[in-house]
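Reminder to self: keep the SMILES exactly as supplied, no canonicalising. Ligand is zinc ion.
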Amino acid sequence: MRVIVHRKLASHVFGFVLLLVGLVVLFLVFWRAWPSVSASSNVLSSLWSYVLTEQVELAWIGELRLVYVTVLGAVFLFLGVFVLGFSRRILYLSSGPVLLQCPYCRNDWKARRAVGWAECPHCRKFVQPQVKKSSVA
Ligand SMILES: [Zn+2]
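Structure tokens returned for the bound complex:
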């Protein structure tokens, strides 16, 4: 059980790191391009042509077209989102009984799994319960 929890956490961290790297790379590309495209009337198209034509010097690789860096950043970003979403789905699937909380009366109850909509057993309202704690013994 402990191993599974660790693996979930690892994939969560991995997804987050990918997302962060992608964001940083895209931000750096944008940061570099901004001084030469900000004056243009159509920022998006000039940003795109800048990315397509410019090259960047990377100390350990050499010259690299900016478009490759941008694509790489986007790929990292999407991979990160994908891994994060996937690890979250695994978390939901494998979680056993959960503790749900009613957003109205703040009472909580045990359920077999997390659900989108449920009837609160305390106030009898049809609510979107919040997961308070996953895997209650
Ligand atoms: Zn309630």
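Points to follow up:
DSSP finds three helices and seven strands in the chain.
Residues 102, 104-105, 107, 120, 122-123, 125 surround zinc ion (CB under 6 Å).
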